[in-house]
Design brief:
This protein is mainly α and about 200 residues long. It has 4 helices and no strands. It has helices at about 5-40, 40-55, 60-90, 90-204. Helix 1 (about 5-40) runs parallel beside helix 3 (about 60-90). The longest helix has about 110 residues, at about 90-204. The chain is rod-shaped and about 215 Å long.
């Protein structure tokens, strides 16, 4: 193969490649334009006119088609952002937000109530346990006190019994002593009488 033929072949291959790349960007531009149409038909109409008149050409320079492609990408981003803001500001979304807030508030309140109920139940149980313990201790203490009181009463009775026994013994002793004293006194009187009688007889 001669050098001119080789160079010609290379040129053809390069042209084909660059042409296919340009065609790729043209098809990409068409895809972007279709997407733009879903967001804003007016803007799509304006851009499609520009594309058809200036860029829908096989011999278009790659730099130019790339520049238009970049413009379409930015346009689509901008439309998507606007669409997002519009969706957020629509009455349906606003209502949904309000409903969500209400639901969240209700859930929070329900959770708070559940926590309070749980605390109250725990407190009640604890109070019951404490009350039971206190009652048990009080009963035990009462029994002990009653036992001690009974023991004290028994002791008192025993002391009283002993005191009564002592009094009885004292009375008995006093009675015996009185009897003995009385006997002695009577005996002494009798002896004295006898002595007086004897003296009188002697005098006569």
């Amino acid at each position: 193969m001669s050098i001119p033929a080789f160079l010609k072949k290379k040129q053809e291959q390069f042209n084909k490649k660059s042409s296919s790349k340009k065609n790729d960007f043209r098809s990409k531009c068409e895809d972007l334009l279709d997407q733009i149409k879903t967001y804003n038909e007016e803007r799509h109409g304006e851009l499609i006119k520009i594309f058809k008149t200036r860029y829908d050409n096989i011999n278009i320079q790659k730099k130019k088609i790339l520049g238009f492609y970049g413009q379409l990408v930015n346009e689509l981003k901008s439309l998507k952002l606007k669409a997002g803001e519009n969706i957020i500001s629509t009455p349906v979304i606003k209502k949904a937000k309000s409903t969500i807030k209400k639901v969240v508030k209700q859930v929070e309140e329900a959770v708070e109530e559940a926590v309070v109920d749980a605390k109250n139940k725990v407190t009640k149980k604890a109070t019951k346990k404490v009350a039971k313990k206190v009652a048990k201790k009080a009963t035990v203490a009462k029994k002990k006190v009653t036992k001690k009181a009974t023991a004290a009463t028994t002791t008192k009775k025993k002391v009283a019994k002993k005191a009564t026994a002592a009094t009885t013994t004292k009375k008995k002793v006093a009675k015996k002593v009185t009897k003995k004293v009385t006997k002695k006194v009577v005996a002494k009187k009798a002896v004295a009488k006898k002595k007086v009688a004897k003296k009188k007889t002697t005098k006569k």
